[in-house]
């Protein structure tokens, strides 16, 4: 028992809601077995820069200081203690404490509007901490160290006139108190961007606080990484045009800051409201093109900077437009549902590749037409390449077209073995020339045979390479076709029989990550469609017409 520490509670008799929050927090620590501050710190962990997300002194302050704790830190501490206490609904416990925190915040604001904050509140909470646990071991200078606090008898203030220094101190004290209220309110409203915009708009219209409002709008109340990656207090939805937007906002802000323009002044000079400029900044949104043009003219930018701004805008717009095509796709659709959407009069060698378009039609290649009887599915691991191949194989089998399967590595294709129409299935990392020639010997334009091959890069130098090459070159006359999938990190297809598949100029690119990936389907892929998070079953279909169509792969 010697290692168990009982922590004192702060005097919160004048703040009943905050007292309830603090009591509940101490009770939760008791349920968790009274862990030490360092134990809680260790359980919360470090950030990407190997700094403690919350050092042990910050943990102690959350329990012992008579101030409203930071919400992000409180959430992390509650989550750790709830898990240690064995609570079944950890997220529910975090939500309960978050509700208490909001009530305590309202109490803090209401009390601050009628009375000056306590001496402890002047120093602040985290600003006065010394993070001794930082990797460099160098304590940060306390903000409170820059202020001199004089103890005065409150009763004497009413009788003794203030000298100039005391009057200045009172004025600064009032400004600092108001600044704290504005920043605290902005922090509380951060998740509700509409409410934050209205609040900042009211503050901005208050004469004398334009620069203060600008600072609150430009800078989040705290760095999100301070609370660690699990905190959602300052979470912003990731934009598909993240890189372009960051660059565009950075350039706009550099030019604006250099000229010391407030958002209010910017709105007056460009004819675009300051609320719009604030919203674009805080929400990571793309400004209107005419707003960027107006900003460029107002700043008298050089031609080079003007072109750069508009180039970034065009790139971001293209990325957002590409994302909007995926937003219109179904989240999930089965093969049977998609197959029922096809035109019953589709040709025999038509295969189902995906569902897309504004009218949500089914799309896929007709292997009996085009520049070559070939189709390529490419994408990184986990993008759904094997699922796309299974759909293609099932499309052929359902209309009684014979299929040869090749799956040198574990693949769902192997599960089709035994179905009527499957001529053979090769599962080794080599295919013999004679055995492939035998299963293709009965192929003809009237009775075609299609080879469907997963992980084709594994078989690039197989014994039957010459026959596979001929299969693409003479497939129309001989009644053969080839569908392959390749891992994106194994591209480009620069030599061997796989090089022949590029002549089909058709394929499905699933979550492409590299610009060169489009080469396998005869298309150039721009930055707007590459580098996105891998989403299984989402990709771009090219059917040889020079257009990329966003599709969802059934499965």
Describe the fold and architecture.
The chain has 555 residues and is of the alpha/beta class. It has 3 domains: 16-131 and 169-227, no CATH class; 242-327, 434 Repressor (Amino-terminal Domain) (Orthogonal Bundle); 335-552, Rossmann fold (3-Layer(aba) Sandwich). Helix content is 43%, strand content 9%. It is built from 20 helices and 10 strands. The protein has helices at 16-31, 37-44, 56-64, 71-85, 90-112, 119-123, 154-157, 164-188, 193-204, 210-218, 242-259, 263-270, 274-282, 289-299, 303-327, 335-339, 385-398, 433-440, 465-473, 475-478, and strands at residues 354-356, 361-363, 374-379, 402-406, 422-426, 449-453, 480-487, 507-510, 538-542, 548-552. It has a 10-stranded mixed beta sheet with strand order 2-1-10-9-8-3-7-6-4-5, with helices on both faces. β9 (538-542) and β10 form a beta hairpin. The longest helix has 25 residues, at 164-188. It is elongated and about 90 Å long. The model is unreliable at 113-172 and 210-237 (pLDDT under 50).
């Amino acid at each position: 028992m010697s290692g168990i520490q009982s922590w004192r509670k702060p005097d919160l008799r004048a703040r009943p809601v905050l007292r309830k929050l603090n009591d509940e927090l101490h009770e939760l620590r008791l349920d968790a077995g009274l862990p030490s501050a360092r134990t809680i710190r260790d359980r919360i962990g470090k950030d990407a820069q190997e700094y403690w997300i919350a050092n042990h002194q910050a943990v102690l302050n959350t329990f012992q200081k008579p101030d409203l704790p930071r919400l992000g830190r409180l959430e992390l501490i509650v989550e750790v203690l709830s898990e240690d206490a064995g609570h079944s609904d950890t997220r529910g416990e975090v939500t309960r404490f978050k509700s208490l925190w909001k009530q305590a915040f309202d109490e803090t604001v209401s009390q601050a509007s009628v009375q000056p904050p306590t001496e402890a509140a002047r120093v602040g909470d985290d600003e006065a901490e010394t993070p001794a646990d930082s990797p460099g071991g160098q304590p940060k200078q306390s903000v409170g160290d820059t202020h001199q606090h004089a103890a005065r008898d409150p009763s004497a203030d009413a009788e003794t006139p203030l000298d100039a220094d005391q009057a200045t101190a009172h004025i600064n004290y009032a400004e600092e108190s108001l600044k704290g209220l504005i920043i605290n309110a902005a922090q509380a409203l951060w998740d509700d961007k509409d409410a934050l915009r209205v609040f900042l708009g009211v503050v901005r219209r208050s004469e004398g606080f334009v620069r203060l409002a600008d600072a609150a709008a430009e800078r989040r109340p705290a760095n999100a990484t301070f609370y660690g990656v699990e905190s959602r207090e300052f979470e912003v939805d990731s934009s598909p045009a993240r890189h372009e937007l960051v660059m565009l906002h950075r350039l706009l802000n550099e030019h604006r800051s250099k000229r010391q323009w407030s958002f209010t002044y910017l709105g007056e000079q460009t004819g675009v409201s300051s609320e719009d400029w604030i919203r674009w900044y805080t929400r990571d949104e793309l400004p209107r093109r005419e707003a960027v043009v107006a900003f460029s003219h107002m700043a008298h930018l050089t031609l080079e900077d003007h072109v750069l701004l508009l180039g970034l805008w065009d790139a971001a717009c293209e990325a957002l437009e590409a994302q909007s095509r995926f937003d219109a796709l179904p989240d999930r659709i089965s093969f049977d549902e998609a197959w029922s959407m096809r035109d019953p009069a589709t040709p025999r060698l038509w295969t189902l590749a995906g569902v897309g378009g504004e009218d949500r039609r089914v799309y896929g290649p007709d292997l009996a037409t085009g520049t070559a009887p070939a189709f390529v599915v490419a994408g990184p691991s986990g993008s759904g390449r094997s699922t796309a191949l299974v759909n293609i194989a099932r499309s052929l089998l359902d209309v009684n077209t014979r299929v040869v399967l090749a799956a040198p590595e574990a693949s769902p294709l192997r599960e089709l073995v035994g179905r009527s129409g499957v001529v053979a299935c090769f599962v080794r990392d080599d295919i013999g020339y004679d055995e492939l020639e035998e299963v293709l010997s009965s192929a003809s334009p009237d009775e075609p045979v299609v080879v469907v091959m997963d992980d084709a890069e594994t078989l690039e130098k197989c014994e039957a390479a010459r026959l596979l090459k001929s299969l693409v070159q003479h497939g129309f006359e001989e009644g053969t076709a080839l569908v392959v999938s390749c891992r994106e990190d194994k591209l480009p297809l620069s030599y061997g029989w796989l090089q022949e598949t590029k002549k089909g100029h058709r394929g499905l690119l699933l979550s492409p990550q590299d610009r060169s990936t489009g080469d396998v389907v005869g298309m150039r892929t721009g930055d707007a469609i590459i580098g996105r998070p891998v989403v299984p079953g989402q990709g771009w279909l090219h059917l040889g017409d020079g257009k990329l169509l966003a599709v969802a792969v059934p499965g």
